[in-house]
Amino acid sequence: xxxxxxxxxxxxxxxxxxxxxxxxxxxxxxxxxxxxxxxxxxxxxxxxxxxxxxxxxxxxxxxxxxxxxxxxxxxxxxxxxxxxxxxxxxxxxxxxxxxxxxxxxxxxxxxxxxxxxxxxxxxxxxx
Length: 127
Description:
The chain is α+β, with helices and mostly antiparallel strands. The chain has helices spanning about 15-25, 75-85; strands at about 5-10, 30-35, 35-40, 45-55, 65-70, 90-100, 100-110, 115-125. The chain is built from two helices and eight strands; from the N terminus they run βαββββαβββ. It is globular and about 45 Å long.
């Protein structure tokens, strides 16, 4: 089975405060830090946590979306086939510039409105 890594994206109103909090929580510096974005990439537990600046937090909290990072575009294609076979609506992105990286991904939404992405990072640092 392919190695997976959970992805959690949070909206934050103060990026510097959020970075300080997660640095203390994980005892780790961000793997990527931009003016409106930070990424913490943990091996144990396998977690890709991103902080995305937003103007305010809505009634649904700070969760932007959830995701599973896979290790190939073929794994993304397999997820697309699995979702479509289950009758789920999908939104596909290929070679998209996201989170300062080049990615292929597919989006689905669970019955409660939580957005999930399955994605692969093809080029890790687009500046």
